[in-house]
Design brief:
With 95 residues, the chain is mainly β. It contains no helices and 7 strands. It has a single domain, classed as Beta Barrel (OB fold (Dihydrolipoamide Acetyltransferase, E2P)). A hairpin with a 5-residue loop joins strand 2 and strand 3.
Length: 95
């Protein structure tokens, strides 16, 4: 899984039927402090994440392993909302 921050939403009225009803969010890779630093991806939201939240997301075939995305044509899925990050005994992020 990868660490990221939700920075926006994507709205698409015309899309593959398998994607109907799925929430699309813009996620940018983040560091251990939750600061956006990495690449930008469009991810399916499987957990009810919101704008500004730090999340864990999976890409590739792992993105299709949730109940929401099973057998759907997705390449990135938000699988968890991060409450806190501790690195080497130090809190680097708290929601």
């Amino acid at each position: 899984m990868l660490l990221g921050r939700v920075i926006g939403t994507v709205v698409s009225t015309n899309k593959e039927q398998e994607l109907s009803g799925l929430k699309l969010l813009l996620v940018r890779g983040a560091d251990v402090e939750g600061k956006p630093t990495g690449p930008l991806v469009v991810a399916i939201d499987a957990v009810g994440a919101g704008l500004g939240e730090v999340v864990l997301y999976a890409s590739g075939s792992s993105a299709r392993q949730t109940r929401v995305t099973k057998d759907r044509p997705v390449d990135a899925t938000i699988m968890a909302i991060v409450d806190s990050i501790e690195l080497e005994g130090r809190q680097t992020y708290i929601k």
